[in-house]
Amino acid sequence: MLYVIGDLHLSFEADKPMDIFGPGWEDHAEKLRENFRIVGQEDTTVIAGDLTWGMAIQDCLEDFRFIDALPGKKIILKGNHDFWWSTASKAKKFFEENGLGSIEILNNNAFFTNGVWVCGTRGWFCPTEGGTDHDKKIMAREILRLEASLKAAGEGEKIAFLHYPPFYGKYYSHEMVELLHNYGVKRCYYGHIHGSGCQYAYEGVADGVEYRLISADHVGFRPVLVI
Length: 227
Prior knowledge:
Blueprint: E1 2-5, H1 28-35, E2 44-48, H2 61-69, E3 73-77, H3 88-97, E4 103-105, E5 111-113, E6 116-121, H4 133-152, E7 158-162, E8 167-168, E9 171-172, H5 174-182, E10 187-190, E11 204-206, E12 209-213, E13 224-225
Parallel strand pairs: 1-2, 2-3, 3-4, 6-7, 7-10, 10-12
Antiparallel strand pairs: 1-13, 5-6, 8-9, 11-12
């Protein structure tokens, strides 16, 4: 089976208690551990960004040990709070050196599992009007990364996993949505949105693509079944 969840926001080594964001986050790591029991050792879970609060990858070892110990294979992608992420190659080396064998990285590539292609990237928010040059540069790079991931996939169903939603409120990324349509994507899962902001997140089918918010607090810290 294939599952997805986003925004674990682990902090075993960083001083970042998540319960300051509301009682729903209290003991959330234990909730994740308990709810991951639905995942089998032969299953795969996509974790859609914001894995850990650690600022450097060396500060995230206990967080990644927690992720590695969860059942099944994990495919991770970058979120806006993953400050530890410098390059995918450095992260892969870190995982290998520390025996974290169940974690793969989605970055300019694609994975074939459970009969579908797992594609995706972080994404970004860049308003059509008022967006800074910095935002525009990041967004242009994320569009290229999403296309590289979709191109890396072979024949068959492609499912997109993003950290940022391709549209939210008044924000709409025409380029991101166009890529999903051009490559025949019918399902898109995203995170990033929390708390009261979830009421403004779009969930449903728009122009033939089904969108779903899978940030951890929104889905009760329980992996969502994809396939």
